[in-house]
Amino acid sequence: MKIVPIALLGLCVFLTCNFDGCGVPAQPGTPAGGFPVTTYSVTEDSNGNIVSTGVVPFTEVSGNWVSGGTGGTVTSFGVIGPFLTDGDGNGFVSNGVVNADWTSTVGWAPVGCPAPGSTTYPFYVDPIGGISWTCVIYVPAEAGTTSTHYVLSGAAPSTITAYGDFSTTYGDPVLKVYVGAATPGLVSTVSASSVVSGSSATFPFPEQSNGSALAEGFYGIVNTNAKSGGSQSWVNSSYLAVGGSNTLSSAFGVDAADIQDMLKVCNPRTGQCTDTYSTYSAPILTQYYSDQVVSWLYGTAIPVGSEPVAVKGYGSYTYASIGPAISIYLTGPANAIVANSGSSSVSIVSFSTNTDVKDIAVGARPMALALNSAATMAYVASYGNGSLAEVNLSTEAVTRTVGGLTGALSVAMDPSGSYVWVGGTDNIYEISLSTFTVVASVPVSGSVTSLAASNAQNELVYTLVQGCCTGSSTYVANELLLSNLSKPGAYAQASASPFAPYTMNGTLPTAAALPQATNIVSARFSNGMGASSTPTGSVIYDLVTHQQLMTGTTPTPVRGIASDPDAMFAYFTLPDSNEYVSVPLEYSP
How far is residue 17's CA from residue 4's CA, in Å, rounded to a whole number? Predict the structure, then answer.
């Protein structure tokens, strides 16, 4: 827990919200004198995500003028007698010296924040921002404290269960949902429908205040117990992602990119221009049956080879739409490499010309791709002949090939950058980039259908299907710690039989083929989160604490997973139901 005087951070506009809504800030002062004083709290996880905000009411604040000023005569407040903010955490220093340097002290003790808090050096107080104190309350990040962490819009369950030390001594526990972004706001409040004392509380699944379903987005959840006197005490905080489904015929492979959007608005008369920047996430998708890649730029379809599966974007390209007053500049990947499983080739795609500029022959039935960190080399795993091809992305040619990789379905770069790992049948193979030979293998039992690396955690995550794909087959997502080849975590173990009906009309080499359907979804969390498909949906898990975090159900198997570099969105492809799903992973900027 820490105390922050917001004025020191240079923030002049803020939102004052309690757990039941937002209070009305005190009337701002004028240059002639007077300024507001505000006390509020922010609940923040250890990754920096704000999961809720609240006011701190009836709090004692004092202040002393130090120097400067353009208005007002009052140079101290709350020093001799108490100065308290009101029930909404707001106060006002009438005729206080403004546009001046002040020091300030806050007394948090009555509400559980540290006491006292004080500034040790002067900070600037203006008539609008005034003095704002915030109590930052830290909660564990990515805590697996609810029964579900993401749902699809329009397909939410009827209830949600939170796990923790719940009590009905003074009334029913309450679940509160906050929308994310820079200014969190209360969206929904629901009371528990059933409680297991000290263990869990079940709530009706939250809706918007008007009774409609939660909109797509990322939400913070705060669970509280009723206290004597009617106030609420914090139990835990969690999160809920509401994803959206998008129709796209046979969407199979997916990659994602952060797209920078620059809007330039110019005054033709004066010639003065203003640039506004924003960043958003966009997918790059393959369409298995129509032999196309869908661009990040306005969704343009580009013909490629037969039955494209995996795709990886690379390079940088800026699209410009220039007008006399308004111009738009969009920057994203310049190219993509696509594995064409039906034509035993890879395609190099240009997003600037929307063309397939080069088809390169590789092994039979290529199913997975990986790029080195510099995006100068691609590594293509081919299931049909158990090989790995190295493709130079500058010369657009195969430079080396290694065989003997039985059932190669997946590929990932080693965190060191010196090796490539290939997931096959009953083995995960380690290939040296210096010799391009197999230098080691890790035995497993089944087909390694997808594979990815966590550089920060120095481990691989992979999906394993055993006995594909009958009623007796099984599925599991595993971790492999590279320092000692131990397996510290396993997730979502279940029957894999739901894969059996979905073989893409018999054209897949195996019904469980999931090119790169395991992916580290967050560089922002020290590569600490992984995502994998399951026979009936997907799972997200914590690679640091080795616990399952988020599960979701989809109507048909997930074939591909990707997340953008900023880890704002994950994308899941469901070709058997002709759709892809976008799931927000945290608050949008």
Answer: 17
> Which residue is listed with tokens 């206290």?
227
What is the domain partition of the chain in residue ranges?
2-139, 150-244, 248-584
Instruction: Convert the pLDDT of each residue in 26-60 to its tens digit.
Output: 334 446 789 999 887 776 655 555 555 667 778 88
Domains 2-139 and 150-244 share a fold: yes
Architecture of the domain spanning 2-139: Sandwich (2.60)
CATH 1.20.120.160 fits 248-584, yes or no: no
Q: How many helices (H) and strands (E) does the chain have?
A: 0, 48
Asked if 74 and 94 count as a contact pair (C-beta separation under 8 A), the reply is yes
Beta bridge partners of 64: 76, 103
What is d(CA 235, CA 146) in angstroms, rounded to the nearest whole number?
A: 12
Report CA Rg, the chain.
Answer: 28
Tokens of 158: 């009827």
Least confident interval from 89-93, 406-410, 470-474, 477-481? 470-474
Torsion of CA 87, 4, 144, 488, to 10 degrees: -170
Positive or negative, the CA dihedral 245, 249, 253, 255 is negative
Cα separation, 344 vs 383, whole angstroms: 10
Which regions of 14-114 does DSSP assign to beta strands (E)?
17-18, 21-22, 35-45, 50-55, 60-71, 76-77, 90-93, 98-107
| Residue appearing with tokens 């080069």 | 358
- pTM for the model stands at 0.71
DSSP 532-566: EEETTEEEEEETTTTEEEEEEE-SS---EEEE-TT
Which tens digits make up the pLDDT trace of 411-427?
Answer: 999 999 999 999 999 99
Q: Which of 48-62, 65-79, 506-520 has the highest mean pLDDT?
A: 65-79
Both tokens assigned to 558? 């997930």
Determine the residue type at 397: A
Compute the distance between CA of residue 249 and CA of residue 242 in angstroms, rounded to an integer. 22
Q: In the 8-state DSSP scheme, what is residue 94?
A: T
Q: CA 335 → CA 107, 320, 338, distances in Å?
A: 57, 17, 10
pLDDT the model gives residue 17: 27
- For the residues 511-521, what does the mean pLDDT come to? 77
Please name which of 59, 7, 58, 15 lies closest in space to residue 35, comparing C-alpha atoms.
Answer: 7
| Cβ contacts of 482 within 8 Å, gap of 6 or more | 414, 415, 458, 459, 460
The CATH number of 150-244 is: 2.60.40
Pairing verdict, β 217-226 and 174-179: antiparallel
